[in-house]
User: Fold this.
Amino acid sequence: MQRDPGEHPSADLVARLAALALAAPARAGSTRLVAVDGPSGAGKTTLAEALAQRLDAPVVHMDDLYPGWDGLLESRLRVRDWVVAPLRDGRPPRYRRWDWARSEYGEWVQPDPSDVVVLEGCGSGALDSADALSLLVWVDADEVVRRTRGLRRDPGYVDFWNRWADQERELYAGDRTRARADVVVDTTPQEPPRHTRRMATEGQQDRAGVKGLPG
Assistant:
């Protein structure tokens, strides 16, 4: 496991993953398909976008493939039919983007052809298409950290967090995604040393009730 604390991936991590992706054999036709998977709020999207920029590759976001809030398990079929199947036929992925406001699939999307495609999101490393992946990256963080990040990014997610988390647990338990990953990344922020936390707490107590000081 590699620790890479914080919401923004380090340059070293991105460089390492890019090197691993390019060194791995192509398994989706002539394309290297890289999956960045893990539970909500772990930091998958920022890592996938940084990796794609480094590789000059398109990103397919699972958020565009899920058929609604109860569609995590069904999205595996979309990956198989709209991403993996075209790549194996020598064509770029072609998929319909889910319209979350209208609760239906919308326009067709087709990225430019590329030697590498990054597939990002919960379920991107599902067992159904595992044999097409050149690299599987699992990104995780403590649950409290993930929830805080997720709800800060999208406050409306609070009504769906538990509903989606139940689907994540079911999928990951059945597919053993983390255990199959080539690289595991933990983005949980590092805590300050204990004496630093104690000093901060004492300072807050000293300032309690004093007006006009910075919070």
Notes: Residues 2-207 form a domain with the Rossmann fold fold (CATH 3.40.50.300). Residues 4 and 197 are 21 Å apart (CA to CA). The radius of gyration is 20 Å. The first helix runs from residue 11 to 23.
